[in-house]
Amino acid sequence: MEKGTDPASATVKNLAQRWQELIAEFTDGNPGIEQSLCNMYQQEGVETASRGMGDGALWDYMGRAISLLP
After folding, report:
1. Where are the domains of the chain?
2. Per-residue DSSP letter, 1
3. What is the pLDDT of residues 17-67, one digit of tens each?
4. Letter string b/e over residues 21-51, b meaning 16 or more CB atoms within 10 A of that residue's CB
5. DSSP of 5-62, one letter per residue?
6. Which residues have a Cβ under 8 Å from the Cβ of 58 and sit 6 or more positions away?
7. Residue among 16, 22, 3, 9 at smallest CA distance from 60
8. Measured by CB atoms within 10 angstroms of the end CB, which terminus of the chain is less buried, N or C?
């Protein structure tokens, strides 16, 4: 992201796929838990919800990459 890598690049799409896999693992594949997690990030903001591990720019960037996945 900092280097300007296109979210459509294979490298970023692979990272987005892994991101999705980790979310599925964390939520045990439960769509209700995943929705609650998304709601928490929206309500609290990315920096607070992630305890400083992410920010809005990263969230938006990965969201764009995830939206490009099949």
Report:
1. 10-67
2. -
3. 999 999 999 999 999 999 999 999 999 999 999 999 999 999 999 999 999
4. eeeeeebeeeeeeeeeeeeebeeeebeebee
5. --TTSHHHHHHHHHHHHHHHHHHTT-HHHHHHHHHHHHHH-HHHHTTTS--HHHHHHH
6. 1, 46
7. 16
8. C
